Batch of 2 targets.
Target 1
Amino acid sequence: MKDIRWKLAALAAAAIVAACGGGETADGPSNKVGINAMVTFGDSLSDIGSYNVGSIAGLGQATGGAGRFTVNATTGGQIWTERIAALLPVPTTCSAQTGMYPNIPGLVGAPATAKANCFNYAQGGSRVTSPLGIQSYLWQGAPFNQYNLGFTTKPVKDQMSAHLTASGGSYTGKELVTVLAGANDVFVELGSVAAGAQTPQAAVTNVATAGAELGAYIKSMVVAKGAKQVLVVNMPYVAGTPFGQHLDAQTRGLVDAMTTAFNAQLAAQLAGVSGVILGDFYSEFKAMVSDPAQYALTNVTTPVCGPNALSNPADAPGSSLVCNASNVIKGDISHYAFADDVHPTPYGHQLLSQFASRLMAQAGWL
Amino acid sequence: MKQTLKLSLVALALVAGSAAQAQSAGTWMARVGATGIYPQVSSGDLSPPAWPNTQTDVSSDWSLGGGITYMITDNWSVDLPLALPFTHTLTGAGAIAGVGTIGTTKALPATLFAQYRFGDAKAAFRPYLGAGLTYAYFYDENATNTLNALSGGTPSNPTTFSIESKFALSVQAGATYSFNERWFLDGVVGYTWLKNTTTLSTGQTQPMTLNPVSVAIAVGYRF
């Protein structure tokens, strides 16, 4: 009987002690499949500094950040892939190649230089297969004779080859590989239609081909080479960006037709491929712009980047590449969706990282 | 340890022999056993920013339990169940179904029951009904990295959450079976009407109906 009393007393005491240990805590970064590195392919939506050289880097240092296609800060971390890397956690990666060749008077570039042990291959302006990306230095020569920023726009196909070369021809299986591309194929093909160089139908066909090619590259150059965790994000709802919003209805419809054709081909290629998650960011992004409040977006039409050193004319909103707190529009822009006509703000990148994280958690990776 | 304790109590009960049983006025009783809490979850949607239909499920848990009872009259008693803290696992549901564990919480429900025990004070078998006031105390909420990633947190500024502790009404139905004058077996099922709100450090709130069913079995001793 004495024994029982002691046990009850101990029980009560234990309960009281346990109750006093309260507090809210959070687990640290981790993943469930041993991911220890990140490899990223794509375009400006995943670029973390391919062009952060020469004049761009100088502008960043002088004004408060540059080199990413968003609202920059002097510290990185704004891009969705960077947010995910921190949560896995994997070492902070870096741009696998830096350099650009501007031919605009007053702008200084730097030669394209491969960076050892850096595995973010994404470059602003890159397309899936064609090296003729947005603002590519290849447009500077005849017959195009453009003055532009001289981006290197290494296509995704070549990005994947470069990684195989850098990594001995295979993946370890412990990487998270991210792929997000396609929008620059839409922009270039649309430009070609606008210039009267091809029919709208040809443009849709070309972009659909790019979608199929991207899926094929992922299979042959990533999955077949040993990658076990490949997160592919399909092309966002480009027609819903400020760029798309300002197009006439017919052109906007063409943009959307190209986007959906690309995504359909990409999905067809990747259906049932082991180790691949295909995230339907097209639909996710469409849901965001149609119901902004649900995602705490306060503005899905106005870019937050104001005039900056890359503006042309000088009083027009500039590229997000050199956009930072010193040259954004006034007011609370913390929950705006767009940095410039097509690129997301850091909050937009956060929403993309949340979406990608959900898919990875559902796949048992996170 | 828990098993050993229970078995030794049962063994003691069996060898103690029989005598006149009494749950009469003024009697104190204490019991030790196991208690299970089964939330009957109906999750509301997490408030924006969130995916539409973002919900949560809450797991059951068993813990070392017991309680103390005092007979005010031969039929009316007050009862204070005791238990070691319960640990409940929160998993994603609705739009985030399949993401796995998003958090854990400890829970310590404290209830004071008024009970009516049927039958004669000396009856071996006495069913009873009770009603009481519960204070559902939630603490030590721990968010997983998954919740952090899904809610836009970072390692340096991780998302945490807090579950509202709250008073609630409880009812119960149980019975005791006396082996002898001192030792008895007690089994009871309870139900608590509990609705509360979970709040994320990122500002979103989630209304939850938990309405837990509790199950307890214990071996008791009459003083």
Target 2
Amino acid sequence: MNLNQLTIKKTQEGLKNKDFSSVELTNACLDQIKQTDDKLNAFVTVTQQEALEQARNADEALKNGVELPLLGIPIAFKDNFSTQGVKTTASSKVLEDYIPPYDATVVKKLKDSGMVMIGKTNMDAWAHGSSTETSDFGPTRNPWNTNHLPGGSSGGSAAAVAANQVIAAIGSETAGSIRQPASWCGVVGLKPTYGRVSRYGVVAMGSSLDSPGPITKTVEDSALILQILAGKDELDATTSPQLVGDYSKNLDKSIKDLRIGISSEYFIKGIDKEVEEAVKKAVLKLLELGAKQEDIKLFDPKYAIDVYTIIQRSEVSSNLARYDGIRFGSGREKFMEEAKRRIMFGTYALSSGYYDQYYNKAQKVRTVIINDFKKAFEKVDVIIAPTSPSLALPVGATKDLSMFGEIADVLVEPSSIAGLAGINIPVGFSTSKLPIGMQIIGPQFSEELILSVANQYEQASQNEDWRRLKPKL
Amino acid sequence: MKYTTVIGLEVHVELKTNSKMFCSCSADYFGQKPNTHTCPVCLGLPGALPYPNKKAIEWCVMIGLALNCEIPLFSKFDRKNYFYPDLSKGYQISQYDKPFCVSGHITLSTGKRIGITRVHMEEDTGKLIHEVVNGKDVSLIDFNRSGVPLVEIVTEPDFETAEEVKEYLQKLQQIVRYLDVSNADMEKGNMRLEPNISLRKDGETKLPNYKVEVKNINSFGFVSKAIEYEINRQAEILDNGKTPAQETRGFVEKNSSTVSQRVKEEASDYRYFPEPDIPPIRWIKQEIENIKNSLPELPDEKVTRLAKELNIKISDAITVSDNIKASVNFEEAIKIGIKENIDPQKLTNFIVNRDVNLADELPASIIKQFIQATAILAVNEDELDKIVEKVINDNPRAVEDFKKGKETVIMFLVGQVMRQFKEKVDAEKIKAVLTAKLK
């Protein structure tokens, strides 16, 4: 097995036992990027020199017995995370030459944990999309089939992890942007509770929704990274003071009598049959482990689309106002169609006379949706549903479909606008050899629980045939 | 035609907190090298987030309480969206429909109450500097001021004269200085005034259907001038049967006039919405009580108390309470004085009449000056009488000259009396006794 194919857990062990060095590990990832990224375009920037220098430093530290959770392990960041001294473009030409003078809190925390930053990954420009096809630097392709899309907006991060270009990556989700590409690329993607992980330094999209989180090869790795990222940040007033759990500790805790909620509203009309079957099969596996299924009734997720669209566009129109052409290099003429559409939409929704009709009403419906979930979580511990109603769609699918993302993300939007925790895990493949993902949604701050459920499934399905599939690149 | 002037006032007060409103940069920007007091937050860099300054919020509430406002238990910040190059984020974080303080008032010396609609918290903008660099006209931006905490105090349209506006401003300035939350220095821009002025026909009660806002006023004196100018200008337009334009005008110092800057056809659309980066503020009653209890004694209360407790004139009490340091020194001096059997009103007279610099003089030294200056009072009246008699008897020629009308001789006699005392004594008093005896 090549080093770049390892998980965080395995690289930790290997580095500690001196089976290989961080430089060797980093080079393995850099080689894989070199060999595959022409096809995938998962990276906007590869920081080869800096990465190798960090790797050499890590090897030195390892020699000196320094113990840090990510010491010497290559990580990639979605290109909307501010990285000091390294271009941060949000995949928009407006920021093509912008080099931040500071690190996002997430970046800083991972640096402090000893990671090697290998580069910045591609995304839908400004995170406006669910395909990574709208990047101003060209689309990213799905490693399982390069004629297909990786999903988005954290498509670069998901593809890079799936293609073993990196050991783990960081993404951000406003509504689906971690879970959906993780689903289409067959990797684990965790969207933490809103306010669990700091947004400081993440180029803002929908400020009341944005949640940074890990994209990894295993659930165990996801827990490990969340442990580093979670917590109150004195630079983000919306982070919660709620105590951080021990996410790795209970990964193997029995799920006997766990109440799994299944809502028929989430197996919507038009859902891909293979997706539906794979998810139902995965639920059966959890029932075999002692969990219990409860049928529940949630609001039709289609209502969430309207709420999400209005709130997110409104916030976008304000968040993008600072790119006025005075600073950051390029001017407004570099905004592409989608960004301009969102600015127009949001500006309209916030205008006096329309505010009550749109933004205010959306916030009211948002409260109704939050309460709907609250009620549901009185009856069940977690809710399980497909992450995406479809398999990875072919390249070009988003053309002339301005609401593409909202429809592709219909199953993740309700939990996003309610600020809940959710995780995507792979549960199989289609006959066309495209990955299928399932999401486990829990109440706010239930990361310990959903990680545990996800891990139980992952362990129990370890011997299934599809687990041995590898992307052919 | 006769008109009544209708004036409302918006005042911005810059707080003197150590750090800015939403980041830890120093808020002390005055006279600093441009763009040295900046960070990702106040520069509005991509991804940076505001973290509210707790002290600034408490100070805003203090101002509200000092202005007799109600403090709603729920409040929040909002984004005010507009484009201007000195605005780093493309929006200003302000407060829209849930300000920290509402429904207060200031009472003028006439007893008239000026209603305070609201007191809210916001952030200052950067500053544009227009210069010629290498022969080219350029506009530069200094973000040192960006994010400095500002409190905006909005009144009802309750003023009818420039004098009322001036007194209100003096009182407001005195209050924020008492609270020690702002230097309230007009010249440094710590306090910025925007009156809006309109006229209505005498006897009408409805608000006029237009108003004129005047900006660029940097002294209390200029406010009066701007108001006087506007009253005349608007009256002339109204006399001609027209309505003055709803607009923003700038004050021009050199001829004390105003010029049109921007005509507002309707209210600007700032597309306010709740600031998603800052959770709403929910006070518990006890927190507001604690802030209330931390307020110092305010000027009006102090004046009333001093007048009553010390039995001094209201006008004197106002003089000695001009600023908090003066009032503290004054009260300390009174205390020492009482120990020395000095009557508070006499001491107050001395301080007021001699224009003693209360803020800078030590209380003990004030008492010393008082004792020296009034030592004659300690002189026994009988003894003075005797000495005066003796001097009159010893100097018959001088007495005769005086009686013949050579009145300047009196000063010679005063000198003779003074020589008999070791301490310095009040010449006026001696002169009075002498004159009485000689006549």
